[in-house]
Amino acid sequence: MVSNIINNYYFPESLCSYSLLGNGNINDTYKIEFKDRSDKYVLQKVNASVFNDPFSIADTHSLLLSNIDKIERSESYSLANLIPNIYGKNLTIDGSGDFWRLTSFIEDSYAISSVTNGWQALEAGRAYGWFLKYCSDFDSSNFKEAIKDFHKLSFRIEQFKNAINNNIAGRKESVEDIISFYLSREEQLMQIEILAKSGDIPIRVVHNDTKIDNLLFIHKKAVAVIDLDTVGPGLVFYDYGDALRTGANSTKEDERDLDKVDFNIEYFYEFTNGYLSNTAHILTKYELEYLHISPILMTYIMGIRFLTDYLNGDVYYRIESEDHNLVRTKVQKRLIESIESKQSMLKQIIKSLIQ
User: Fold this and answer.
1) Both 175 and 315 in a single domain?
2) Phi, psi (5° rounding) for residue 286?
3) How do strand 82-83 and strand 204-206 relate by DSSP bridges?
4) How many domains does the chain have?
5) Are residues 125 and 99 part of one domain?
6) Residue 113 domain-assigned (yes or no)
7) What's the CATH code of the domain at 305?
8) pTM (2 decimals)?
9) Is residue 52 predicted with pLDDT exceeding 50?
10) pLDDT tens-digit series, residues 271-280
11) Domain check: are 221 and 344 in the same one?
12) Would you say residue 116 has pLDDT above 80?
Protein backbone atom coordinates (compact mmCIF):
# COMPACT_ATOMS: atom_id res chain seq x y z
CA MET A 1 0.00 0.00 0.00
CA VAL A 2 2.77 2.47 0.91
CA SER A 3 4.55 1.85 -2.40
CA ASN A 4 1.33 2.46 -4.31
CA ILE A 5 0.82 5.77 -2.55
CA ILE A 6 4.41 6.85 -3.21
CA ASN A 7 3.82 6.22 -6.93
CA ASN A 8 1.66 9.34 -6.82
CA TYR A 9 4.71 11.39 -5.86
CA TYR A 10 7.81 9.81 -7.40
CA PHE A 11 8.77 7.06 -9.80
CA PRO A 12 8.50 3.69 -8.02
CA GLU A 13 12.07 2.67 -8.87
CA SER A 14 13.36 5.58 -6.78
CA LEU A 15 11.82 4.17 -3.60
CA CYS A 16 14.47 2.94 -1.24
CA SER A 17 12.69 2.00 1.97
CA TYR A 18 9.96 2.89 4.42
CA SER A 19 9.46 2.19 8.10
CA LEU A 20 6.94 2.97 10.79
CA LEU A 21 7.61 6.26 12.51
CA GLY A 22 6.62 7.25 16.03
CA ASN A 23 3.95 5.78 18.28
CA GLY A 24 0.93 7.92 17.48
CA ASN A 25 -2.52 6.61 18.36
CA ILE A 26 -4.46 8.32 15.57
CA ASN A 27 -2.65 8.38 12.22
CA ASP A 28 -0.47 5.67 10.58
CA THR A 29 2.91 7.27 9.95
CA TYR A 30 5.91 6.12 7.88
CA LYS A 31 9.41 7.44 7.26
CA ILE A 32 10.20 7.38 3.54
CA GLU A 33 13.69 7.31 2.00
CA PHE A 34 14.73 7.31 -1.65
CA LYS A 35 17.77 5.93 -3.47
CA ASP A 36 18.38 9.00 -5.59
CA ARG A 37 17.90 11.79 -3.03
CA SER A 38 19.20 12.62 0.41
CA ASP A 39 15.95 14.19 1.61
CA LYS A 40 13.65 12.04 3.70
CA TYR A 41 9.89 12.36 4.00
CA VAL A 42 6.97 11.46 6.26
CA LEU A 43 3.99 9.66 4.75
CA GLN A 44 0.87 9.63 6.89
CA LYS A 45 -2.60 8.16 6.55
CA VAL A 46 -5.13 10.58 7.99
CA ASN A 47 -7.60 8.95 10.36
CA ALA A 48 -10.88 10.08 8.80
CA SER A 49 -12.91 8.61 11.66
CA VAL A 50 -11.32 11.19 13.97
CA PHE A 51 -10.86 13.99 11.44
CA ASN A 52 -13.98 13.73 9.30
CA ASP A 53 -12.87 16.45 6.89
CA PRO A 54 -9.31 15.55 5.80
CA PHE A 55 -9.39 18.20 3.07
CA SER A 56 -9.97 20.84 5.72
CA ILE A 57 -6.91 19.87 7.76
CA ALA A 58 -4.81 19.82 4.58
CA ASP A 59 -6.10 23.32 3.78
CA THR A 60 -5.19 24.42 7.31
CA HIS A 61 -1.66 23.08 6.88
CA SER A 62 -1.31 24.92 3.57
CA LEU A 63 -2.65 28.12 5.09
CA LEU A 64 -0.14 27.90 7.93
CA LEU A 65 2.71 27.47 5.46
CA SER A 66 1.60 30.56 3.54
CA ASN A 67 3.18 32.66 6.27
CA ILE A 68 6.38 30.63 6.59
CA ASP A 69 8.57 33.11 4.71
CA LYS A 70 8.02 35.61 7.52
CA ILE A 71 9.88 33.48 10.05
CA GLU A 72 13.02 35.25 11.19
CA ARG A 73 16.18 33.20 10.79
CA SER A 74 17.09 33.92 14.40
CA GLU A 75 14.01 32.08 15.64
CA SER A 76 15.00 28.81 13.94
CA TYR A 77 11.61 27.11 14.28
CA SER A 78 9.88 25.31 11.45
CA LEU A 79 6.72 23.58 10.33
CA ALA A 80 6.77 20.49 8.15
CA ASN A 81 6.36 21.25 4.45
CA LEU A 82 3.31 19.69 2.81
CA ILE A 83 4.35 18.01 -0.46
CA PRO A 84 1.76 18.02 -3.26
CA ASN A 85 1.37 14.87 -5.36
CA ILE A 86 1.97 14.73 -9.12
CA TYR A 87 -1.57 16.02 -9.63
CA GLY A 88 -0.91 19.10 -7.51
CA LYS A 89 -3.10 17.84 -4.65
CA ASN A 90 -2.15 17.93 -0.98
CA LEU A 91 -3.94 14.65 -0.28
CA THR A 92 -3.79 11.34 -2.12
CA ILE A 93 -6.78 8.99 -1.95
CA ASP A 94 -6.09 5.25 -2.22
CA GLY A 95 -8.33 2.51 -3.59
CA SER A 96 -9.99 2.04 -0.20
CA GLY A 97 -10.90 5.70 0.07
CA ASP A 98 -8.24 6.47 2.68
CA PHE A 99 -6.45 9.82 2.68
CA TRP A 100 -2.65 10.17 2.65
CA ARG A 101 -0.25 13.11 2.80
CA LEU A 102 3.48 13.52 2.34
CA THR A 103 5.49 16.01 4.40
CA SER A 104 9.14 16.87 4.92
CA PHE A 105 11.24 15.00 7.49
CA ILE A 106 13.43 16.96 9.91
CA GLU A 107 16.79 15.23 10.02
CA ASP A 108 18.45 14.41 13.37
CA SER A 109 15.36 15.42 15.32
CA TYR A 110 13.68 13.55 18.15
CA ALA A 111 10.52 13.76 20.22
CA ILE A 112 10.08 13.64 24.01
CA SER A 113 7.22 11.70 25.59
CA SER A 114 7.14 13.60 28.89
CA VAL A 115 8.83 16.53 30.61
CA THR A 116 11.59 15.36 32.92
CA ASN A 117 13.85 18.42 33.06
CA GLY A 118 13.38 22.16 33.37
CA TRP A 119 15.12 22.91 30.07
CA GLN A 120 12.51 20.79 28.27
CA ALA A 121 9.69 22.84 29.79
CA LEU A 122 11.48 26.07 28.87
CA GLU A 123 12.01 24.96 25.27
CA ALA A 124 8.41 23.77 25.00
CA GLY A 125 7.21 27.15 26.24
CA ARG A 126 9.36 28.99 23.73
CA ALA A 127 8.23 26.81 20.85
CA TYR A 128 4.52 26.92 21.58
CA GLY A 129 4.78 30.63 22.35
CA TRP A 130 6.46 31.11 18.99
CA PHE A 131 3.62 29.19 17.34
CA LEU A 132 0.98 31.48 18.87
CA LYS A 133 2.99 34.55 17.78
CA TYR A 134 3.44 33.10 14.30
CA CYS A 135 -0.30 32.48 13.99
CA SER A 136 -1.24 35.91 15.31
CA ASP A 137 -1.08 37.30 11.76
CA PHE A 138 -3.86 34.96 10.63
CA ASP A 139 -7.59 35.66 10.73
CA SER A 140 -9.07 32.84 12.84
CA SER A 141 -12.31 32.98 10.83
CA ASN A 142 -10.39 31.53 7.87
CA PHE A 143 -9.72 28.35 9.82
CA LYS A 144 -12.14 25.50 10.49
CA GLU A 145 -12.41 23.49 13.69
CA ALA A 146 -10.79 20.11 13.06
CA ILE A 147 -13.01 18.57 15.75
CA LYS A 148 -16.07 20.64 16.57
CA ASP A 149 -16.25 22.01 20.13
CA PHE A 150 -13.13 20.02 21.06
CA HIS A 151 -12.16 22.27 24.01
CA LYS A 152 -15.43 24.14 24.42
CA LEU A 153 -16.24 24.03 28.12
CA SER A 154 -20.01 24.50 27.81
CA PHE A 155 -20.20 21.58 25.38
CA ARG A 156 -18.21 19.30 27.68
CA ILE A 157 -20.32 20.33 30.68
CA GLU A 158 -23.49 19.55 28.73
CA GLN A 159 -22.14 16.09 27.92
CA PHE A 160 -21.20 15.65 31.58
CA LYS A 161 -24.64 16.64 32.89
CA ASN A 162 -26.37 14.39 30.36
CA ALA A 163 -24.23 11.49 31.56
CA ILE A 164 -25.18 12.28 35.18
CA ASN A 165 -28.89 12.45 34.39
CA ASN A 166 -28.94 9.34 32.20
CA ASN A 167 -26.68 7.28 34.50
CA ILE A 168 -26.45 4.62 31.79
CA ALA A 169 -23.90 2.46 33.56
CA GLY A 170 -25.52 2.84 36.99
CA ARG A 171 -22.35 4.28 38.49
CA LYS A 172 -23.52 7.74 39.56
CA GLU A 173 -24.13 6.92 43.21
CA SER A 174 -20.59 5.64 43.68
CA VAL A 175 -19.00 8.87 42.44
CA GLU A 176 -21.30 11.55 43.88
CA ASP A 177 -18.40 13.26 45.65
CA ILE A 178 -16.37 13.53 42.44
CA ILE A 179 -19.40 14.82 40.53
CA SER A 180 -19.94 17.49 43.18
CA PHE A 181 -16.28 18.49 43.00
CA TYR A 182 -16.50 19.22 39.29
CA LEU A 183 -19.93 20.87 39.37
CA SER A 184 -18.79 23.26 42.11
CA ARG A 185 -16.17 24.73 39.76
CA GLU A 186 -18.37 25.16 36.71
CA GLU A 187 -19.44 28.75 37.31
CA GLN A 188 -15.92 30.10 37.87
CA LEU A 189 -14.44 28.42 34.81
CA MET A 190 -17.34 29.40 32.56
CA GLN A 191 -16.32 33.04 33.02
CA ILE A 192 -13.60 32.49 30.44
CA GLU A 193 -16.10 31.37 27.80
CA ILE A 194 -18.41 34.26 28.68
CA LEU A 195 -15.56 36.73 28.13
CA ALA A 196 -14.73 35.06 24.82
CA LYS A 197 -18.34 35.35 23.66
CA SER A 198 -18.38 39.05 24.55
CA GLY A 199 -15.18 39.62 22.59
CA ASP A 200 -13.11 40.58 25.63
CA ILE A 201 -10.96 37.50 25.02
CA PRO A 202 -9.99 37.06 21.35
CA ILE A 203 -10.47 33.93 19.28
CA ARG A 204 -7.02 33.07 17.98
CA VAL A 205 -5.47 30.44 15.77
CA VAL A 206 -4.12 27.90 18.27
CA HIS A 207 -2.56 24.45 18.13
CA ASN A 208 -5.14 22.73 20.37
CA ASP A 209 -2.87 19.77 21.29
CA THR A 210 0.21 21.14 23.00
CA LYS A 211 1.72 18.02 24.54
CA ILE A 212 5.51 17.88 24.68
CA ASP A 213 5.55 15.07 22.11
CA ASN A 214 4.13 17.40 19.46
CA LEU A 215 7.48 19.16 19.32
CA LEU A 216 10.71 18.05 17.68
CA PHE A 217 14.09 18.67 19.29
CA ILE A 218 17.67 18.73 18.04
CA HIS A 219 20.16 18.42 20.88
CA LYS A 220 18.59 20.57 23.64
CA LYS A 221 16.64 22.90 21.37
CA ALA A 222 13.03 22.66 20.20
CA VAL A 223 13.09 23.18 16.43
CA ALA A 224 9.63 22.32 15.08
CA VAL A 225 5.96 22.26 16.00
CA ILE A 226 4.30 19.17 14.55
CA ASP A 227 0.93 17.38 14.44
CA LEU A 228 -0.97 20.34 13.05
CA ASP A 229 -4.25 18.49 12.48
CA THR A 230 -5.97 20.14 15.43
CA VAL A 231 -4.89 23.69 14.57
CA GLY A 232 -7.84 26.05 14.34
CA PRO A 233 -9.81 28.76 16.12
CA GLY A 234 -9.64 28.74 19.91
CA LEU A 235 -8.40 30.46 23.04
CA VAL A 236 -4.83 30.95 24.19
CA PHE A 237 -5.81 29.11 27.39
CA TYR A 238 -6.26 25.87 25.44
CA ASP A 239 -2.61 25.75 24.38
CA TYR A 240 -1.02 27.23 27.48
CA GLY A 241 -3.24 25.28 29.86
CA ASP A 242 -3.00 21.86 28.22
CA ALA A 243 0.77 22.08 27.85
CA LEU A 244 0.96 22.56 31.62
CA ARG A 245 -1.75 20.02 32.43
CA THR A 246 0.40 17.39 30.73
CA GLY A 247 3.89 18.82 31.15
CA ALA A 248 3.76 19.92 34.80
CA ASN A 249 1.90 16.88 36.12
CA SER A 250 4.35 14.99 38.30
CA THR A 251 3.04 11.60 37.24
CA LYS A 252 1.16 9.70 34.55
CA GLU A 253 -2.47 10.31 33.61
CA ASP A 254 -3.68 7.04 35.13
CA GLU A 255 -1.58 6.91 38.31
CA ARG A 256 -3.38 4.95 41.04
CA ASP A 257 -1.33 6.39 43.88
CA LEU A 258 -2.85 9.86 44.14
CA ASP A 259 -0.18 10.95 46.62
CA LYS A 260 2.20 11.07 43.63
CA VAL A 261 0.05 13.61 41.78
CA ASP A 262 1.44 17.14 42.07
CA PHE A 263 1.71 20.27 39.94
CA ASN A 264 5.40 20.95 39.36
CA ILE A 265 6.13 24.64 40.01
CA GLU A 266 9.59 24.47 38.43
CA TYR A 267 8.17 23.22 35.15
CA PHE A 268 5.38 25.80 35.38
CA TYR A 269 7.93 28.58 35.78
CA GLU A 270 10.17 27.37 32.96
CA PHE A 271 7.33 26.82 30.50
CA THR A 272 5.72 30.16 31.35
CA ASN A 273 9.06 31.93 31.06
CA GLY A 274 9.55 30.51 27.57
CA TYR A 275 5.95 31.06 26.53
CA LEU A 276 5.70 34.67 27.65
CA SER A 277 9.06 35.53 26.09
CA ASN A 278 7.28 35.15 22.75
CA THR A 279 3.72 36.14 23.63
CA ALA A 280 3.60 38.72 26.42
CA HIS A 281 3.49 41.57 23.91
CA ILE A 282 0.52 40.14 21.98
CA LEU A 283 -1.65 38.84 24.82
CA THR A 284 -4.52 41.06 25.95
CA LYS A 285 -5.32 42.28 29.45
CA TYR A 286 -7.93 39.57 30.06
CA GLU A 287 -5.75 36.83 28.60
CA LEU A 288 -2.96 37.72 31.00
CA GLU A 289 -5.41 38.12 33.88
CA TYR A 290 -6.85 34.61 33.43
CA LEU A 291 -3.67 32.86 32.32
CA HIS A 292 -3.08 31.34 35.75
CA ILE A 293 -6.46 29.57 35.55
CA SER A 294 -5.60 27.90 32.22
CA PRO A 295 -4.09 24.73 33.73
CA ILE A 296 -7.20 24.28 35.90
CA LEU A 297 -9.50 24.85 32.91
CA MET A 298 -7.86 22.20 30.75
CA THR A 299 -7.46 19.74 33.62
CA TYR A 300 -11.13 20.26 34.46
CA ILE A 301 -12.19 19.58 30.85
CA MET A 302 -10.21 16.33 30.74
CA GLY A 303 -11.46 15.36 34.18
CA ILE A 304 -15.13 15.67 33.24
CA ARG A 305 -14.50 13.94 29.90
CA PHE A 306 -13.05 10.92 31.72
CA LEU A 307 -15.89 10.97 34.26
CA THR A 308 -18.50 11.35 31.52
CA ASP A 309 -17.13 8.27 29.79
CA TYR A 310 -17.12 6.36 33.08
CA LEU A 311 -20.78 7.26 33.71
CA ASN A 312 -21.65 6.27 30.13
CA GLY A 313 -20.08 2.83 30.48
CA ASP A 314 -16.64 3.48 28.93
CA VAL A 315 -17.72 3.96 25.33
CA TYR A 316 -15.13 6.52 24.17
CA TYR A 317 -11.69 6.03 25.71
CA ARG A 318 -9.78 2.78 25.47
CA ILE A 319 -9.61 1.20 28.92
CA GLU A 320 -7.41 -1.47 30.49
CA SER A 321 -9.60 -2.08 33.54
CA GLU A 322 -13.19 -1.47 34.60
CA ASP A 323 -12.17 1.53 36.70
CA HIS A 324 -9.62 2.98 34.26
CA ASN A 325 -11.64 6.13 33.49
CA LEU A 326 -12.40 6.55 37.19
CA VAL A 327 -8.68 6.43 37.96
CA ARG A 328 -8.05 8.99 35.22
CA THR A 329 -10.65 11.44 36.49
CA LYS A 330 -9.33 11.09 40.05
CA VAL A 331 -5.86 12.06 38.83
CA GLN A 332 -7.29 15.16 37.13
CA LYS A 333 -9.23 16.00 40.29
CA ARG A 334 -6.12 15.74 42.44
CA LEU A 335 -4.13 17.78 39.93
CA ILE A 336 -6.74 20.54 40.06
CA GLU A 337 -6.49 20.54 43.86
CA SER A 338 -2.71 20.84 43.62
CA ILE A 339 -2.93 23.71 41.12
CA GLU A 340 -5.54 25.49 43.25
CA SER A 341 -3.30 25.27 46.31
CA LYS A 342 -0.55 27.09 44.36
CA GLN A 343 -2.64 29.79 42.70
CA SER A 344 -0.93 32.66 44.50
CA MET A 345 2.47 31.40 43.33
CA LEU A 346 1.25 31.01 39.73
CA LYS A 347 -0.10 34.57 39.72
CA GLN A 348 3.13 35.96 41.14
CA ILE A 349 5.28 34.07 38.62
CA ILE A 350 3.22 35.32 35.69
CA LYS A 351 3.28 38.87 37.04
CA SER A 352 7.05 38.79 37.48
CA LEU A 353 7.60 37.53 33.94
CA ILE A 354 5.53 40.23 32.22
CA GLN A 355 6.99 43.20 34.08
Assistant:
1) yes
2) -70, -35
3) unpaired
4) 2
5) no
6) no
7) 3.90.1200.10
8) 0.92
9) yes
10) 999 999 999 9
11) yes
12) yes
Question: Of 41, 76, 104, at which residue does a domain stop?
Answer: 104
Mean pLDDT, rounded, for 183-210: 96
Residue 112 in domain: no
The string of pLDDT tens digits covering residues 12-41 is 666 677 777 765 444 688 888 877 777 889
Return the CATH number at 82.
3.30.200.20
User: What is the predicted pLDDT for the residue at 345?
Assistant: 98
> What's the domain range around 77?
2-104
HEC string of the chain?
CHHHHHCCCCCHHHEEEEEECCCCCCCEEEEEEECCEEEEEEEEEECCCCCCCHHHHHHHHHHHHCCHHHCCCCCCCECCCEECCCCCCCCEECCCCCEEEEEECCCCCECCCCCCCHHHHHHHHHHHHHHHHHHCCCCHHHCCCCCCCCCCHHHHHHHHHHHHHHCCCCCHHHHHHHHHHHHCCHHHHHHHHHHHHHCCCCCEEECCCCCHHHEEEECCEEEEECCHHHCEEECHHHHHHHHHHHHCECCCCCCCCHHHCCECHHHHHHHHHHHHHHHCCCCCHHHHHHHHHHHHHHHHHHHHHHHHHHHCCCCCCCCCCCCHHHHHHHHHHHHHHHHHHCHHHHHHHHHHHHC
Asked whether the beta carbons of 297 and 189 are under 8 A apart, the reply is: yes
285 — pLDDT class (breaks 50, 70, 90): very high
Between CA 127 and CA 205 the distance in angstroms is: 15
- Are 136 and 38 contained in the same domain? no
Beta-strand relationship, 15-20 and 28-34? antiparallel
Residues 75 and 124 grouped into a single domain: no
185 and 47 co-located in one domain: no
Same-domain status, 209 and 326: yes
The rounded mean pLDDT for the chain is 92
Same domain, 91 and 172: no
| pLDDT value, residue 12 | 62
The predicted model gives 259-279 an average pLDDT of 98
